[in-house]
Write the structure tokens for this entry.
Amino acid sequence: MSDPGKPIQSYLRYSAVGIELGLSVLAGLFVGKYLDDWLGTKPWLLLLFLILGVVAGFRSIIRAARRMMQEEKDREKTG
């Protein structure tokens, strides 16, 4: 019998991955802007930290996808 909480749990996991991507990009944007304003290096640090935020966000998506695929394989093996 299927567990009624499983679909909700998977939806929450997928939405958390999207939120993590957005927060990574926003964190890079705000840190870069703050450092640019403080050091007077506009727009270089903003661009650098924005790129780093995008890379970090996609890295987290890849890690989450691998983890979900591994869980699916484990689920197939057990049952």
